[in-house]
Amino acid sequence: MSNSLPELTIEAGRGERHYWQDLWRYRELLYFLAWRDVKVRYKQTLVGVAWVVVRPLLMMAVLTLVFHRIAGMREASGVPYALMVLAGLLPWQFFSATLAESGNSLVGNAQIISKIYFPRILVPISTLVAGLVDFAVTLLLLIPLMAWYGQWPDWTLLLLPAMALVGALVTLGVGISLAALNVQYRDVRFVIPFIVQFGLYVTPVGFRAGEVPDDWRWLFDLNPMVGVVEGFRWCLLGGYPPPSTTALLGSVTVGVVMFAFGVRHFRRVENTFADVI
Amino acid sequence: MAASITTEDIGKCYRIGHETNRRYPTLRDGLVDGLRSLVSRRRSDIETFWALRGVSIEIPEGQKVGIIGRNGAGKSTLLKLLSRITQPTEGRIRLRGRVVSLLEVGTGFHPELTGRENIFLNGAILGMKRREIERKFDEIVAFAGVEKFLDTPVKRYSSGMYVRLAFAVASHLEADVLLVDEVLAVGDMAFQKKCVGRMDDLASKGRTVVIVSHNMQAISHFCERVLTLADGKVVADGVAKDVIAQYVASQYTGSSNVFSESVGDDGARRSGTARFKSIRLLDRSNGSAAAVPMGDSLEIEVVVESPVELGDCSIGVGISDELGRRVATLTSLMLTGYYLALDASTDNVFVFSVASLPLLEGTYHVSLFLVASQKDYLDRVEHAASFNVVPQDVYGKGRIPARGQGTVFLNADFLARGGEAK
Fold it and tell me: How far is the CA of A152 from the CAs of A91, A138, A149, B91, B199, in angstroms?
């Protein structure tokens, strides 16, 4: 019987050979960490879980007011402005909330990390899973609103999962990189709110990508969230124009590259987290 | 029998930069250092410190091993390497079977979550499958005795309940190899007994156990083999009783000492700042306090050397018993209410004076620490000196409290009260 025990060799300066296997073995922890984050988030709040519903609706109202009513920007191909904003908020809120959470996640879990072993990458990933809850709620909100406006989806709805995958790749890539950087350089804490705030203006959340002057489009399209946000609208709202090829290609490329870079960087430094955190 | 744990020449090296002013490296520093290292290869301001080096041990399946040594000897580092929390700088570790580490009770407990929720969360963090937790749930709850409070957030638990629940989860893990750090000392007496019983249980099932502790009694009760670490190396390895006796004997360091630059055993010593130069323990007649009678006076005289003038300091003295348990702490801030200023001198002499030492017979160790404005340790010397307390008839009735009756004796009276209550 004793021969059946698993063996493990740890060698200085070598990555774990069991890395991906370990990740699979600890998959339940991923679920528990995400579950903890969701549970804790709305404890001791007055309005509680209602925040999940109130937040995107408020954002939708404010952005519609500012960009549509005040700045006078127009809707595209008959899609109601408020709906367009909400469909754009869907991936954007997911991105910004996950970024804010995951950037600080390792430092926030320092206590656990310095006392017990588990694949560290689960921590930033779990914030993404926790973000899925809000994502799902906003998606559900969209249904009655679309019915109210009489706006129906097209065949493009079938492409939504693929689009969500691209969004998740971009988010995870940026999130993992920032989380790892934050362990050593606490500057990241100040960079994240900046990215989130600034991002709202360089990403077409409150407006359409079509509003951007053609001369600047190439620069604008470098932002990986442009393709994702426009893509979501195209998938969800029938008749909405498809995202430009450059924006879409940009999202996929940046997403894959950021993800690969993030995971690589994370694996390179994760063994020393316990020493520097 | 096959070995559960084998280590080959493992070592762990930490960098200690001279970062007296900055706690965290910032991105800017990283960029600047990076550029600098492009220009010149040498980074002279980084010192390395080997917390552990050249450690090769083999622990057969089912053996109970205790690891002892002074603070900073590398015990915790060894445990962290074995439990994979951090990676060795050199060498190789081979582990057989499921390894579970208990470096702290209640790792990952979230105060906002209920007892029930925390059992699942903590179990998952410790590496249990959900099924496994569900199967053992009732057993865990019964062991901790928190049935009534399962749905109360643990932030409302008393500290005793908290610790009981945490230990209960941890001790129900199914592990082949268990790594434990000082967790035996939790909870009240009754619960401690339960803990020890539970540990005995685990041990009798043929698990391999490695325990780090300062509690020699617990170690000698539980372990058959003991390793002593000093300065990151294994200096003794053998039958528990022998190694412990040898270790305890080696702890007596004399009643006066002059520290060399390198005496610090925890890497806290740095050149360029204030440091302790020497210590003397003096008795009533200002002779060396090799043996202080119970209730007599004791003076602890320390000399501090500082290359610069320093304000906002505090000097502290810790007194611990033979088993490493802290008995008392004195700091200059506590006694005077003021921060201390050090002159740029090699002889700042300070005295802690205890008029009547309320300790029972035994050997006690003095450690020193020098703190700047409450947070940064400028210097720290563990086991700076030792003294013996010898019996004296403190109550004047010819009956002297013995060692087994506690750690201290109290200045007290006994009388009968008049009236009906009699």
Answer: 19, 17, 9, 63, 64
ipTM value for the complex: 0.84
Closest to A232 measured CA to CA, from A89, A55, A95: A89
CATH code for position B345: 2.70.50.60
Whether A274 and chain B come into contact, CB under 8 Å, resolves to yes
The three-state secondary structure class of A178 is: helix
Task: Find the helix packing angle between A27-41 and A122-149, rounded to 10°.
Answer: 60
pLDDT, tens digit, for every residue of A192-204? 898 888 898 889 9
Question: Which of A1, A2, A25 to probe by mutation at the B interface, max B CB count within 10 Å?
Answer: A2
Using one digit for the tens of pLDDT, what is the confidence trace for B129-146? 889 999 999 999 998 888
CB contact under 8 A, A275 and B86: yes
Residues in B closer than 8 angstroms to A43, CB to CB, are 112, 153
What is the number of domains present in chain B?
Answer: 2
Instruction: Name the residue ranges covered by the structural domains of chain A.
Output: 30-276
- Both B86 and B206 in one domain: the answer is yes
CB contact under 8 A, A185 and B113: no
A35 neighbourhood in chain B, CB within 8 Å: 121
Tell whether A9 is within 8 A of chain B (Cβ). yes
